[in-house]
Specification:
223 residues, mainly alpha, globular
Amino acid sequence: MNSSPVLFALDALTGALFLLTALGVVATRQVLASLQLFILQSLLLALSAVLLGNAQGSIHLFAVAAITIATKTLLIPWLLRHTVSAEVYRTREIERVLNIPSSLLIAAVLIVLAYVVANPLLGAVEVPFAQVNLPFGIAAMFLGAFTIAVRREAVPQLLGLLAVENGVFFAGVAIVPNLPVIAELAAAVDVPVIALVLGMLTRRIHARLGTTSVGDLASLREH
């Protein structure tokens, strides 16, 4: 294992930027900006997998990086841009349960909580890179779940769900560096299908109601 200080420092920088993108998804007001932040977050996930793959000599992590780039930075954004009405991306995303300052305050608490949760787990993991990836990954999971809770629009909620999945893999690549590629391939199939179905559903909702607010779905009930 090549756990050089340079690779460790690069992974720490990647983790910090990864966490910043999760905060950005919480704070941004625009759907398009949320999508762009998700793409950047996925690129950082792939970069961390490459760094860990180089440090640990794991071909599995290089495969995870390639699959992540193919699905999360190319395929899923393409599906969302072509299945969701372009008007959704031009509209400011202001439908939220909490305002931005309150959301960021709670996000900060969630990040601290993630470190509290990760701390007892780090003692059971011998991989040095887990010291970075595990707390950052758990924090991203919490922030993704929080995004789902505070957003009222369908596309940002979907991106929050995808951010949770990114957090899981960001922590997982450090804990299980030789994770079978079949596990990532399974996610690579399931996640784009979810994005496609929800994107098409969102397009129909927007065409019917003129909005993608999940709170307005009650108006679709049959009378």
